[in-house]
Amino acid sequence: MSQDSLLRVERVTKAFDGLVALSEVSLEVRPGQIKGLIGPNGAGKTTLFNLIACCLAPTAGDIVFCGRSLVGLPPHRAAELGIARTFQNVQVFPGMTVLEHVLVGLHRQAQAGLVACALQTVRLRRTERRLREEAEALLDRLGLLPWAEVPVETLPFGLLRRVELARALAVRPKLLLLDEPGSGLNPTEKQAMSQLVRGLRDEGITVFLVEHDMTMVMGLADEVAVLDHGALLCEGPPHLVQRDPRVVAAYLGEGDDA
Amino acid sequence: MTARAWAGTWFLAAAGVAVVGAVELAWPGTAARLTRGLVSTDLLIRAGLFTVVLVGLNLLMGYAGQASLGQAAFYGLGAFASAIFTVRAQALGIPASVAGAWWWPWLVMLLAAVAVGAFALAVGWVILRLRGHYLAMATLGLGIIVYIVLRENLGMPHLNLTGGFDGIVGVPRLRVGGAELWPVQVYYFVVWAAALASMALGLNVVHSPAGRALRALHGSELAAESVGVDVGRLKAQIFALSAALASVAGSLYAHFQAAVVPDTFGFVPSLELVVMSAVGGMSSIWGAPLGALAVLLLEQLLRTHVLGLVPAVSGELEPVVFGLVLVVIMMFWPAGLVSSRRVQGTAWASR
Amino acid sequence: MAEPATTELPARTVPGPRGPAPGAFAARRPSSRVVLGTASAVLLLVFWALGRRLGYGLSEYLQLLVDGTVTGSVYALVAVGFVVVYRVTGVINFAQGAFVMLGPMLAITFFRALGGSGGLALAAAAAAAVLATALVATAVHRLTLHPARAASALTRIIITVGVYIALQGLALRVWGPRPYVMPAFSTLHMADRFLEVGGVTLQAQSLWVWGLGLLTVVGLVVFFEHTLVGKAMRACAVNRTAARLMGIRVDRMATLAFALAGVLGAVGGIVLAPSTRPTYDMGLDLGLKGFVAAIAGGLVSLPGAVAGGLVLGVLESLWAGVTVAGFKDLFAFVMLILLLLARPQGWLEGGHE
């Protein structure tokens, strides 16, 4: 384990009612890199993401983020520590506008308790103005500004992925977990998404992503880890991983569903 | 939302409330004469009291998406706290100089709200992890438990604090200094001041980061947590706020009615609150006064007008018609009278 | 979504059984078996301690236990009614309590119309009352919940509440507020025969409650297991969409579920009636208790509902025997909350959030 890892997954096992979803998985994500996580369906990729985001607790092992163990923390604490995520099946808030999604993402910065909100303190209103400006700037950067006041349920799927990304970025994450950011997007949208993710990396946000589209993930990731049947198969630079016979076998066994 | 975008409508509502109150104060009974006995100060006061409860209930059910079928319990706890600590002050060992002071009932009202809020916070922390039907049923159980405890003298019949089935009579009127806030035309202003204040409070919450977080967790708890919303805590807090509001309304009710009986706060009243909330539109703060008024007017209309016209059927048919009207409203108008466009998509009613 | 909600909820959470409680209190919960075991031990201890104060011996406890199975049988019938409707329609039917009240009220009315004497008349009146209640239940579904089938769970619950209020109001109008008298089945008049069995006193009516309760449940099981319609209903309960694709008329099955709930409620109310005094508002208490029993059994399981009813009846009887009378009803609702909290895996449907 190198000293400079941002996230370290140490011999993590996760079992659901005796069914082992992950067994003894160890990997790390270094700051500033885009790390890809691939594997056939049911390999445990999303489970691993849920463990990192504290939505699940590991059965055994440890997950260390910035030198601090995440095990046992509630999910909102993970966000506070700087882990933001998007979801495989887009999770938006029906009835809320695009801007409001980002504002919810900025929630932590509002620092407003229920009492302050109920009384609408002067400080709260000032913060609210500042947050609004910040949210609009973020939407502008992601090209979502024209839809700022539009309720999300009227948006096409491709835009929803970006709304989720905007909401996640509002947390100002150190580590961004993207669960299949390309799924459901057309090739043009996928390219734009890749471009965006690269831009984020260049700004210093570390990205850890699950992706089924091999072209996308191989073109994007600095390093790729492969999961199969809950175990880490191999790890390394994309061009090497692609040629690894074990990876080929794992995918051939199941068929590439990219 | 710019700061207090709702302020205009609110002031308009406040002005309307004030005008009605002033007219009633100057010429008592005007409303009843104009509406052929349909509207009275009494009815308006009840609507105001329910508004306070419903603001909390709408935040909880319409915004946060958490059901409560036991809200009348908090209403009752507030009412009984006020009644017990004013009527039974002597038995409780509270010195007459304190219990007789004009500010004592107000202090009791405040402390009761805080205590009931704290109680709800503790209970909510545990039961709000239940979802959907299950939460609804747990709150229903909670409501009935509180009702039984009130009815059974808190399990300490020798002290006779709640008065059992018969409740407590002789709750004093509220005073400010030496002035009694009575007759009803005066008390109307007290109740509606509380109603408007609670609406302002509710609107503030709705148009704030907390309000956004509530709607977010209603839409997807998972996603709300992923951006740092402490879902468990926020749900418990909003439950506590709704309970505290209900408690204040209960205290005001006790001083209005001058008597409290447990049956006012049982299972059926809890359901009536949900009905008012649904009729008014639970995903809007404005649904609170509208729902309260609509349901009370409907009941009054059935009592005095519709059924009174047919001599053969006495007022006994009132619950039948009420139940049927309720069914019809829910079948054809499930979103309620008002529902803000934005929350509409997430409201239970429109699912 | 235009369809009734439970089967077609969009996938909303992560794959795998994510704990119901997000956050700190999610993990580290003892298994429900441990919770229930501990709770039962504590309860028995409480019963024993409170009973000792009253000088209770074995025969007293035995008497309470037997009495409890009688009420428990009725709770079980009502609970099964909740379960049948919930499984097929996804609705918690508060009107169930009204069916429990309509059964005995109609039976008494019919019995009087038939002359008010004779075992045959009583049987005919009871059968007619059960049938009539089933018809009312059918009408309730066709006129209210069927048209509103696309509405949210809460809306539909409120509709059933409205139906309950209306039916109870109607009962008040027709029968007035006073309690009625239903003759005991074996003596055919107010006073029942008493039996002494091993130190336990038993009303002959209790045998009728057990017998008819058992018969009804067995009949229901036979219906679900061995008839085509029954199997079709079970298919609807498992997967409504698939059932529809198989050509099953799901809406008719829903109506039939209501009819069955009407039968179960009416039978429960009628067999209990001779030992209580039926009133227009008896449905509220029995309905809520039956509901608690259904929850105790997991809300989707028929054997669970029967067991839940019997256990609730027995525990409540023991509790009522050792505590002050007014606190009798407390037990069911404390149990309700504890059961809900102890069964975190019990979210059987995503509901409306």
Describe this structure in words.
The complex is a heterotrimer of chains A (258), B (351) and C (353). In chain A, 41% of the residues lie in helices and 23% in strands. Chain A has 258 residues and is of the alpha/beta class. In chain A, strand 4 and strand 5 (68-69) form a beta hairpin. Chain A is globular, with a radius of gyration of 19 Å. The two termini of chain A are 32 Å apart. The model of chain A has no long low-confidence stretch (mean pLDDT 90). Chain B is built from 15 helices and 4 strands. In chain B, the strands form 2 sheets. A two-stranded antiparallel sheet of chain B has the order 1-4. A two-stranded antiparallel sheet of chain B has the order 2-3. Chain B has one domain (7-350). The model of chain C is unreliable at 1-29 and 344-353 (pLDDT under 50). Chain C has helices at 32-53, 58-89, 96-113, 119-145, 153-175, 204-226, 228-238, 240-245, 250-272, 282-296, 302-322, 330-342; strands at residues 194-197, 200-203. Chain C is 66% helix and 2% strand. Chain C is globular. A two-stranded antiparallel sheet of chain C has the order 1-2. At the B-C interface, helix 7, helix 10, helix 12 and helix 14 of B face helix 5, helix 10 and helix 12 of C.
Q: How are the secondary structure elements laid out?
A:
The complex is a heterotrimer of chains A (258), B (351) and C (353).
Chain A: E1 7-16, E2 19-29, E3 34-38, H1 45-52, E4 60-65, E5 68-69, H2 75-81, E6 83-85, H3 98-105, H4 107-110, H5 114-119, H6 122-141, H7 157-170, E7 175-179, H8 187-202, E8 206-210, H9 214-220, E9 223-228, E10 231-236, H10 238-243, H11 245-254
Parallel strand pairs in A: 3-8, 3-9, 6-7, 7-8
Antiparallel strand pairs in A: 1-2, 1-4, 4-5, 9-10
Chain B: H1 7-26, H2 30-34, H3 41-63, H4 71-87, H5 96-99, H6 103-127, H7 132-151, E1 168-169, E2 175-176, E3 179-180, H8 184-206, H9 209-219, H10 221-226, H11 231-257, E4 259-260, H12 267-280, H13 287-309, H14 318-332, H15 341-344
Antiparallel strand pairs in B: 1-4, 2-3
Helix pairs in contact in B: 1-8, 3-8, 3-11, 3-12, 3-13, 4-6, 4-7, 4-11, 6-11, 8-11, 12-13
Chain C: H1 32-53, H2 58-89, H3 96-113, H4 119-145, H5 153-175, E1 194-197, E2 200-203, H6 204-226, H7 228-238, H8 240-245, H9 250-272, H10 282-296, H11 302-322, H12 330-342
Antiparallel strand pairs in C: 1-2
